[in-house]
Design the sequence.
């Protein structure tokens, strides 16, 4: 998890862990959003480790990654793979993860310390 944290980058002027994203591979020009090969899977891993260990730094990266994923959702809904498609209105695994984390964060967790 520490290696993943070291590979994270910020977005739109926000530094990670405030908002985080991870490249698909080291020199990739894009940032994929899916569970199996993208940021949603990484966010899920950080969230799972945070829940099981109680380590706040892991939760900060999970929430920062969720903020990036949330920024990729258009007014038309989630866009699987980060690009418009025929399924643009269908919630993707990324948006489902964001929704779950938002509710858990708002109802159960104290705000993370910076």
Sequence:
């Amino acid at each position: 998890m520490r290696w993943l944290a070291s590979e994270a980058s910020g977005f739109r002027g926000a530094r990670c862990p405030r908002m985080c994203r991870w490249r698909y591979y080291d020199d990739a020009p894009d940032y994929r959003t899916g569970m199996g090969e993208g940021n949603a899977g990484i966010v899920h891993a950080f969230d799972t480790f945070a829940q099981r260990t109680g380590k706040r730094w892991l939760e900060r990266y999970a929430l920062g990654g969720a903020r990036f994923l949330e920024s990729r959702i258009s007014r038309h809904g989630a866009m699987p793979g980060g690009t418009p498609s025929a399924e643009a209105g269908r919630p993707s695994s990324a948006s489902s993860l964001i929704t779950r984390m938002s509710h858990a964060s708002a109802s159960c967790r104290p705000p993370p310390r910076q």
